[in-house]
């Protein structure tokens, strides 16, 4: 039985991304040993979309209940992100982790499962 999700972020600068997850996103963490940190995440959902490319891939989005407030909190911490985009299925901001990896946060319009 599925009890949750486990996400792996491949990073060229894990220490900087760990700090970003802790200090900027406010996620709690535990030391899993062996140099691994596990971050607690709020409830999640998943969807499957048809890809037009040759190689299937995964995308990472965090969900927000107040995208404007989230964007303002980033600005207070001197973190740059793109403008809020209206996608039809939600309102989205894109930002970049310290390692250069993309991160997207959106406020969904759809119901949560």
Strand content: 15-25%
Q: Structural class given helices, strands, pairing?
A: alpha+beta
Q: At the third CATH level, what is the topology name?
A: 2,3-Dihydroxybiphenyl 1,2-Dioxygenase, domain 1
The name of the CATH superfamily reads 2,3-Dihydroxybiphenyl 1,2-Dioxygenase, domain 1
Which range best describes the helical content: under 10%, 10-25%, 25-40%, 40-55%, 55-70% or over 70%? Answer: 10-25%
Rounded to an integer in angstroms, the radius of gyration calculated over CA atoms is: 15 Å
Quickly give the CATH architecture. Roll
Query: How do the strands line up in the largest sheet?
Result: 3-6-5-4
Total strands: 6
Which residues form runs of ≥5 with pLDDT under 50? none
Reported for the largest beta sheet, the result is:
4 strands, mixed
Q: Your description of this structure?
A:
By secondary structure, the chain is of the alpha+beta class. It has one domain: 2,3-Dihydroxybiphenyl 1,2-Dioxygenase, domain 1 (Roll), CATH 3.10.180.10. It contains two helices and six strands. It has helices at about 15-25, 65-75; strands at about 30-35, 35-40, 60-65, 85, 90-95, 100-110. Strands 3-6-5-4 form a four-stranded mixed beta sheet, with no helix packed on it. It has a two-stranded antiparallel sheet with strand order 1-2. A hairpin with a 3-residue loop joins strand 4 and strand 5. It is globular and about 40 Å long. The two termini are about 15 Å apart. The model has no long low-confidence stretch (mean pLDDT about 90).
